[in-house]
Every structure is written in structure tokens, then in C-alpha cells.
Here is the input.
Amino acid sequence: MKIQVRSAGVLAKYLPAGSIMNVVELEIAEAATPLDVIKQLGMPINGQYFVALNGELVTKNERDCRTLAANDKLSIMPPLRGG
Amino acid sequence: MGWQKKILRVDLTNGTAASEPLNMEWANLYLGERGLATKYLWENMDPKADAMGPGNVLVFATGPLTGTMASTSGRYAVVTKGPLTGAIACSNSGGKFGAELKFAGYDLLVIHGKSATPVYLHIVDDNVEVLPADDIWGTSVWHTEEWVKQHHQDPLIKVASIGVSGERGVRFACIVNDLHRAAGRSGVGAVMGSKNLKAVAVRGTVGVKVYDPERFMEAVTKTKALLWDSDGRRSLTEHGTNAMIDSMQEFGGLPTRNFQEVQFGGVDKINPAAMVETKPSGHRNLITNKACFGCTIACGRIAHIDKEHFTIVNRKEYWHASGGLEYETAYAFGPVVGIDDIDALTFAGFLMNEHGMDPISFGVTLAAAMELYEMGVITDKDTDGVPLNFGNAEALTIMAEKTGKYEGFGQILGLGSKRMCEKYGHPELSMSVKGQEFAGYDSRALQGMGLGYATSNRGACHLKHDTFAEDMEDQTGKGKARPCKDSQDVTAMVDSSGVCLFTTSSWGVEEFQQQIDAACEGDWTVDRLREVGERTWNLERQFNLAAGLTAKDDTLPKRLLEVPAPSGTAKGRVSELGKMLPEYYKLRGWTADGVPTKKTLTRLGL
Here is the structure.
């Protein structure tokens, strides 16, 4: 199934070719979790990210138990810090 | 060592300047920069004095690491009573000015009184002159810096100066050094202007010594490597602070149209990706990044504006490269006023530096004016015929220039949002704490940030605490008081050291301890440094209480306390400040009215 993944900043380099404005359509396995997608993209699994699924916050503890569905919108963003 | 153990005291009323030994008893309690300047302010003025009167004292302060080999060691602070808030003001700047002041042999510059005529200070090591500023009064920061260098035939002089906005008392005027670095917040430039002090020009050749050079360099090498390897540093170097804008948009904490919304549809036109995009005309906004003195991060952006853009098409004087968008400027000229024209945002940033104004306070004040305009409270008659609708990029740049030059409606904007909104009968539209406008984080989505805003001693500020990690993981107010209080203390210590807060992307207190203990004599432990921060925070609080502020000032606008976030991950939430504040006061060792108890004051030696 396919989902839409958005990232930015230092994490954008992990998005596969074909991403437009840091958004890409990604083929993932059935019942995959946000953590599975982080692994699939090659992002360090212990990195500090801000993750949202369809506009809702996904905390660290939820990243390996929330199940993704087709057409979900997953955001994996650099941590909020300073500025 | 680390310190020069000497300060320069200037009496502008009498036109005199004299050096004196640094009070080492105070240095051992407050370290330097923010903390030590707060102590000097406390001991040298009545907190009830008029912020724009001769009784206010203006302190420029370096830290023991300023000018050393430590990474980011170019920092200095300006501490005074703030005209925007009536509270203590502490504004921190980078560039090269701070290190130069240290090289001239001074830890602090303490300025009293008011000159009868415009003057500037010229400091070359021990030679200090108070000189007439008639030739530069009424001119911009950029002109002033160029004039001083030419007049003294020395391109290496470092200049900190104010523009017309500071001279005329714009409440959020700042002090700009090195053309585009600034002690930006709380109106410290207006204090300088009220003293008829146009600029401080410094050339230093004395150098800086540290207590144990070998141990110091070992610590510096180790901490620089740690910083270099961190993701936080990498993000700041590669994308600048504006990297935050994409995350805030996704999070739903990006204040938009005067905090009526929390997400902005035009983000993709003003984010770091847009800054490096080459337009069909061949123009690309970002040229390169830039570092301050001794910095191994280089988060600064150098940009230029498309020559065909309406803002500069007939103004060649702006066809050069200068300071580009950072997160707070992108927010304050973008989402909060509903504008997505990157060239207009960049031009507004140039104008802030040229005329010496705080972009955050200007942008949020303009946002309030735009809301007043759309409500019909003010009209074209008030705004010099300029339609102040949200999204009007031309209005942004016109008003930035008018405020910088203190002309027309710019004089009203120069009051700041609190005074302006009160003037028009809608104080609830001022998005501020203690009169100082919010940075680019909505406290309905970031609860710890809201507590930090409400309790910041200089009014709303995002740089006096760090609860980002906690706010990312939980969107309630639960458990936010402890990290808010602890990070406020650590930040106060960092701000007292002479290095940049952005080092905390990888440095903890231990890394500061290793460098400070090697640079300065005395046994500087981690616990002692934490206590320096806590002592500084409590002395700032004491200053504010003595100035007349109370716990009632530790609050947020009704919009954040009562109107739920309309979208984003925190949709439906309001700030839970009422739950967090009592816990915070208790952790601080303060009464329920926000007053430090005798026990707390005694413990901290206050």
C-alpha cells in the first residue's frame, strides 16, 4: 500500500528520489508502523523526531504500535528546537 | 582569569569615563555576562526608575569565555530596564563586537546618566573618548558603522549602534553590531537613544588570557568535536534556524494572522527549501551561511533580494547581500502577518537591521494592527492610506520603513502591540507577556513554551528556557514545570558564560563546566554553575518585583487561554497555564504570589 511521507531539514536527505517539496509517495508493507517507515527510509531509529500521523501527534512510545493505512499522511520532522 | 577583571564606567551626564576593578566577589557568584550585568544593574539603579530616563543604567557585558578559543565565544549581553516591559531587559548578541570589547580589556561597560547632546563612545584599549555624534545622529545603523570606520580610519573597529528608531524611542528598538547582529529584544536600543548615545565603537588589542591554557584547549577541542558531530549543529549549519518553520507548521504551533490560526498555507514559499530554490529569473535568495566570532556552527544566513522585486527595483542601495531570513524573522514577517513573499520578508529583515528594530516585536505589533484594520477599528485614515490587510506584502515593507524612520503610522507601531492595542481599546489583541511580543511558537501546541513565556523575566521569550523535547512528546501541561524551571536556570548560566545558547544542541552543563573551570580560577563545579543560573533568575525576579511587577504579570493573552487551537496536532487545546504556574512557583521556592521566600533568597545568597 502507499502512504504520503513528509519530512524537512536534515531529515529530507532520507526521502527517496522523486520527492517534491519534501513530500513523497511511499510503498510500505501492510500493517507497517511509523517506526517501520523510519527504518525503511534509513533514518537513525533512535533519532529525536517529531512524528505526526494525519495531523495527530505520535509519541515515541506509539511509534511501533500505531498501524498505518493506505493513503495515510505521515510527517517525520526534525526536532523542535531553538530558533 | 577568563575575566579581564576590569570594567569601564561611563557617566554620560558629565561626559566622563573611567575604568575600575571588576568586583570579583560578584563575578564568583554571577560568572559574567547576563548574571554579572544583572548584579551590577541591581546595585547601581532604582528598579522603579523610568526606563527611558537618566536614572536607567545600560550595561554591556561579556562573559569569561567571550573572546577565547571556545566555540561561539563572540557573545555579549545588554542588560538594562526595558522600555517595552518595565521589567529587566537582557538581550544577547553575537557578531564580533563582544569579543572586541573583551580584547580592549573590559568585562563590562556600565553606562550611567544622559548626555546633553548626541555622543558616541570611542574605545581603543585604555583610551576612551566621549565624542560628538552630530554627524551621525538621525542616520541609520548601516551609515553609522561606515561613518565611524571612515572617520577613525580603521576598518577593524567594531561598532554597536542604534538607528533613528532608537533615537526616537521606538519601544522595540535594538542595538545592532557588525551590520546584522543585534541585541534585539526588549527595546535596549531605545534606552541607548534616551541617553543620547548613538554608538559604541571599540578596538581592542589587549587579548584574553585563561587560567589553565593547556586544560582549556583540551576542553575546547573535545567540546568542539562534540558540537560538530551533533544533528542539532548540522541542522543549524545547513538550514539555519528557519529549519524550524516546517516542523512548526506540521506540529500546528506556527502563529498565523495574529495567532488566530496555528498553521500557514504559504510555508513552502518561505522555508529553507524556498531560500535555496532558483527562480525562473535565475535569482536564488540564499547566498551562503555566516558565522559569528569563533563560531563553529554558522547558523547565520546571507541573502539578497531579486532586483526585479517591487521592494528594490528602483533602489540600488539594497542590491547587495546582507542578513537573510532566520526562523523568527520568517515567522514575524510571514505567518503572523499572513505574507508569503520571500523577497518582501527578506527586505523587511534588511530594514530591521538598517534601522535597528526587533523583528519579532515589529511583526507581531503589525499583526495586531492588521487585525484592528480588518475589524474596522482603524482605517486608511490612521494608516497613512496603506491598506493593512493580512497578506499585504507592500504594507509590511512600507510600515517597516515608516517605523524605522519614526514617520506617520510607524510612530504608533513603535509603541509596541500592548500600548497600541490599549490605545485603540482592544488590549486583548496584543500577543505579548509583560508587553513583549511572542516568538514563533503557539503555547496552545507547546505547553511548556507557554509557561516559559509567562514566567520569562524579560517578557515573552523563547530563548530563556528549553522545553521543546517535552512539548514534542506531550501536549498537556503535565510535567512541564520542572523542565521549564531547570532549563531556565541552565540557560541563565549559559547566557552568563560568553558563548551561544545554540551550543546546547549538544553541550550539557558538564561541557560548560570543563571549559569554565579551565578558563577561570576557582573551583567551578556543575552544581555551582547551576546555582549561578538559579541565582541570576531569582535576582532578575527581585528586580522585577522591585520595579512593581507582580504574579499578575505572569500570564498569557485570553486568546491562548480560552480560544482552542483551530487545527494541527493540538487542535482543540488551550494553554494550561493555570495548572502549571502553581507547580512552577513551588519548585522555584516562591510563594503562591510568585515572590521568592526568605529561605530561597538565603539559600542563594540574595
